[in-house]
Amino acid sequence: MGLISNRVQRNEIKPGDHIYTYRAVFAYSHHGIFVGGSKVVHFTRVVNESYNHTTECPTFPDCGFRQPNSGVVLSCLSCFLRNASLYCFEYGVAPSVFIAKVRGGTCTTAPSDSSDTVVHRTMFLLQKGFGNYDVFQNNCEDFALYCKTGLLTVDRLGVGRSGQASSVIGAPLAALLSSPLKLLLPSPVGVATVTAGMYCISRYATDIGVRTDVVKVAVEDLAGNF
Fold first, then answer.
1. For this structure, is 31 an active site residue?
2. Which PANTHER family does this UniProt record tie to the protein (predicted)?
């Protein structure tokens, strides 16, 4: 993996890895935890509250399994990817590397826990759920980040841990913060440089590796947070 892309091959991932793929022509990414045996556990919006387990996967009968009214789903790797490319999320990256990767939702400065701990959290949440899906506060990336680190945000009204969501919020924030400087920087290049810098700073400030509003929560105690 490098600064340009975190793309990997299927034989390169191992249980406990945080993986993702892009949807809608790279408009957004979908995240999950690889648990081995060509299976991925991921978090989605609950569409049908009266859900009963069914599968259209011809290879794995348990593909699509989830508990009633839960958005945490077990899928096979092929169904998770939907013929798209596979990427691996990076943990414990240096601040310079984090900032250099302009697109959010690809890495964090926070370290990952052991693979055994990650898989344990993931399989526990497959049975117990992960609360209500919210695109900004509790999405698929938030789920994967928690499984990897055990970290939750204290302020449930603010932005979640998702770097992808932070990027969406950070872009207009960067433009707003840089707007007073336009009088001092008449050059379009200068304005663009400042805006880009403020965007990177705002995105870095919301990373779970540097935030002060995150706490470590045992997965067995997680139900009370939702």
1. no
2. OS05G0310600 PROTEIN (PTHR46137), OS09G0526800 PROTEIN (PTHR46137:SF2)
Q: Is 53 one of the annotated active-site residues of the chain?
A: no
On whether the CB atoms of residues 143 and 73 are closer than 8 A, the answer is no
pLDDT in tens, 89-145: 999 999 999 988 878 889 999 999 999 999 999 999 999 999 999 888 899 999 999
pTM of the model: 0.82
Domain ranges of the chain: 17-223
List Cβ neighbours of 113 (8 Å cut-off, separation of 6 or more): 148, 149, 150
Query: Which of 76, 79, 107, 140 is an active site residue?
Result: 140
Catalytic choice (18, 42, 88, 107):
42
Annotated catalytic residue within 18, 30, 31, 147: 30
Which of the 8 DSSP states describes residue 59? S
Q: Is residue 57 annotated as part of the catalytic site, yes or no?
A: no
Residues 6+ apart with CB under 8 A from 90: 1, 6, 97, 106, 107, 108
